[in-house]
Amino acid sequence: MAKQYSEMSKAELSQLNSELQKQYDEIVESGISLDLSRGKPSKEQLDLSEELFTALNSSSQCISSTGFDVRNYGLLQGVEEARQLFGQLLGVPAENILVGGNSSLTMQYDAFARCMLFGVGEHRMSWMKQGDAKILCPAPGYDRHFAICEEFRTPMIPVRLTGHGPDMDQVEELVANDPTIKGLYCVPKYSNPTGETYDEKTVRRIAELKPAAKDFRVFWDNAYLYHDFGKVTEVANIFDYTNGTENEDMVYEFFSTSKITFPGSGVAVMASSKANIDFAIKHMSVQSINADKVNQMRQVLYLKSPENVREHMKKHAAILKPKFELVEQKFHEAFDGTGIATWTEPDGGYFISLDIFPNTAKTTFNLCKAAGLKITGAGATFPYKKDPDSKNLRICPSYASAEDLAKACDVLAVCAKLAATRRLLELE
Amino acid sequence: MAKQYSEMSKAELSQLNSELQKQYDEIVESGISLDLSRGKPSKEQLDLSEELFTALNSSSQCISSTGFDVRNYGLLQGVEEARQLFGQLLGVPAENILVGGNSSLTMQYDAFARCMLFGVGEHRMSWMKQGDAKILCPAPGYDRHFAICEEFRTPMIPVRLTGHGPDMDQVEELVANDPTIKGLYCVPKYSNPTGETYDEKTVRRIAELKPAAKDFRVFWDNAYLYHDFGKVTEVANIFDYTNGTENEDMVYEFFSTSKITFPGSGVAVMASSKANIDFAIKHMSVQSINADKVNQMRQVLYLKSPENVREHMKKHAAILKPKFELVEQKFHEAFDGTGIATWTEPDGGYFISLDIFPNTAKTTFNLCKAAGLKITGAGATFPYKKDPDSKNLRICPSYASAEDLAKACDVLAVCAKLAATRRLLELE
Prior knowledge:
Structural class of chain A: alpha/beta
Number of domains of chain A: 2
CATH architecture of the largest domain in chain A: 3-Layer(aba) Sandwich
Largest interface: A-B, 49 and 49 residues
CATH topology of the largest domain in chain A: Aspartate Aminotransferase, domain 2
Number of helices of chain A: 14
Oligomer: homodimer
Number of strands of chain A: 12
Radius of gyration of chain A: 23 Å
Order of helices and strands of chain A: HEHHHEHEHEHEHEHEEHHHEEHEEH
Strand content of chain A: 5-15%
CATH superfamily of the largest domain in chain A: Type I PLP-dependent aspartate aminotransferase-like (Major domain)
Helix content of chain A: 40-55%
């Protein structure tokens, strides 16, 4: 067991710092080129969906169950078969499903833009016209959610995460008292990057919020709903708690097949109340005649059923699980007993959240970069890239090979330790 | 030769009116159900692209010329092969091409939204913040362009069409003197619905505009660039006139394969200056990781080359031309000598613009509707649906079968004539 850094004498720390610096110099000398920043599936995972290419190979497969030829214009809400399948996957009726294009990020951006420009529904003032529209952002969180808020200059308020979802005491108090707080971003299952899943009580408390803003909306980004690779965790269906209540229109849920079939060539989905879907469709009809229904049909023909999706996801899990385990093993070997790092060991999703010694994230990032290891930018997981403790790093184990992953973890560990010794020695 | 309605005595008109009313009643009695409002390809046209389904049938075809696996995230500007092909089709370098998703309407809406929200480029104030942003709309024009302006509450100023593009005297004077005029919508080839193609002089005058607004933009919707079915008409490449001038950033061009392969499942394209493309990409990167590159690759593998696209479009032409000729023949039979109707006889595109007796478009529409014939709404081709003469109807010959088309034209002619006699008799 290594000695805790905080218990080391200055001499011990200096000695350790010298050793780490030597290791680091050797790494730089060796000239590596590695990347831990890519939160995307590996080639091996993409190959799982090879049969998608031929799932739709004839126009005879293009007549939907409602008799519509999906090759032609129309059906802005999506093909019936796709609405049915995604309804089953998300546990909502097909009429509450809007099947879109290739990107749930685009659907989220567009939904947010509609709130800003046109308000959340008929006879609602646009968020933009109301002036300040603040958004609650559980942090560390998904940088692309934060980027949408920045793009529209909507102030972000970070909210603490508990390991089972946002701190609901904090959320409840904030939304109850401030009518300019208009939204809450959530990744309820295997949160990016902490990997935590909201427990039933948290989901219920979100569903039962009493916001001062009557046009408050929850952006429920359920990107990893079927992306288990460890113990299968269930997340509660938030609509079970909002249906029939005054919060019936409060939630927009998003999902996609990007990490089921092909990233950026799959099908994205929004689920919400009938009123919200109708309002979205009304505005979307100015922007589009329809999403790519041929691809919707192709994905449905390939994915077939919720049962088949679950089976398919087990194949992804079989590839992902060893990579996550490898990173976790490497982190144990490197950090156990040092007291300078903690990390998440999620049962699904795409990320490991690594907390290193406070105020060393930027130095560690720069050391990695200079050595030839790319990692996600320090601070990226916080609104305005402001990590209050400058300690969080998002690790993406999915894309690299096992060999590269092992090497990258070794390099990262040396950099993080070196940065910690520098900090403790007040060298920087 | 029929007698001109305007030269008929009241007795003759009354007699004619009675005869037409009788014909109309018989049509209503017969219980038809026809549709001339669908500006979309027929099943026969869709079947032309059957081989698109199998053009990409293996992951081995998914490595782009730059070595990128198009199945995975990335390449927001599009796959290199697609940028090359569309660059050749539009006559611009590939670096000026942004290949998008399934809808050029979405690309136009999003480009317009960026102008409104973020301005036309770096250090430019958003159109929204500047207050009034007026848009010039050649009319009759494309209803979906007008809908975008209405959605963003940007006042539309109708501009007269000359048969070879907008009245440039009017356009030049308006843009030179009013800095709140920020945009001009154009369908330069086979304009929707008039079918006219802008002549070289008009294109040049647009390229050489001296707008008072320094952030003036031309939305160049080149939807029908390869959609000839009669005499092949060439439209000048507007970038040939703007490149290297102070208007270099003035034009956004749009194009898609929707009416080449499958409507709403093709690939859309924006062409513009490098500065405009870079600015678009910067904001699009918040909205999307990439468009559907697998479909981009599929379309390229199927369409192959500009020469092949031209050959493919000849097959569309062979289906469309007889339908347009049939409508024109029917209109000649019905209206020649009556003096109550004129219509365009385009060499391409999807529409015939029919002008009937002034102030009868709504009555004609209602008569058609009551008889079971759906036509595009009266006024739809004008901003705010306000046809100043209430005479323009947009006819879509592409979708219906020849048999239905012939019947529909007969019904439409009876309705238009009946409405004219009513008007002349001051019955309504």
